[in-house]
């Protein structure tokens, strides 16, 4: 049964990562414009009479509180077991592909222990998760705990891209590059391209590929370093053009002195 609840009366499970206002900024803007379209799932809170435990939709509930609107949720009459809560949460959020990457991995790890499964394959089968998807979910365990606070600000796809980097140093470098000059996450396709370039640059004997720009009688060879994006090259060329314009009185054969 769907109900509209006061989000202040709805609490996530104690083992969930705390949700910050920044985590749901995109949802708040959407809810203020269109309202909450996808309901959450709640049940009576086992420790707080009259309150609700959010089984699925913690981010949605938090966004509703900030947007000052009621939280629409499917109300379950009974309190599920820990394993059942995880089954509901993983199933609902895997379908929506919006659960925190670390939380999803932690949920499946807890479920595996609760059910006393000996292999990940057993846990994945019970939850209806294909082996390839399960491998993608659990790979985030490779990210060291001290690197997680910054990584948690990134979408799940980017987190898993970082987890697949060969070394810890590569992970740290990619995490740093995953944010722009304003400390905001860059698009995930750019992160994936950076990761690919870094891996190629790490291969023994492989040099970064360059390209030649030809225009009439002019020719320039550009060899970007690994991890450099097209936007970085564009900014560099803008600076180069400004430098050339400032020294346009020099003959072409004298320009080499500008770039020792």
From TrEMBL:
Top-rank taxon, per record: Bacteria
SUPFAM superfamilies xrefs: ParB/Sulfiredoxin (SSF110849)
Gene3D superfamilies found in the cross-reference section: 3.90.1530.30
GO CC terms, sorted: chromosome
CDD domains to which the protein is assigned, alphabetical: RepB_like_N
GO BP of this protein: chromosome segregation
All copies of domain ParB-like N-terminal, residue ranges: 3-94
Coiled coil: none
Name of the protein this chain belongs to: ParB-like nuclease domain protein
Taxonomic path: Bacteria, Pseudomonadati, Planctomycetota, Planctomycetia, Isosphaerales
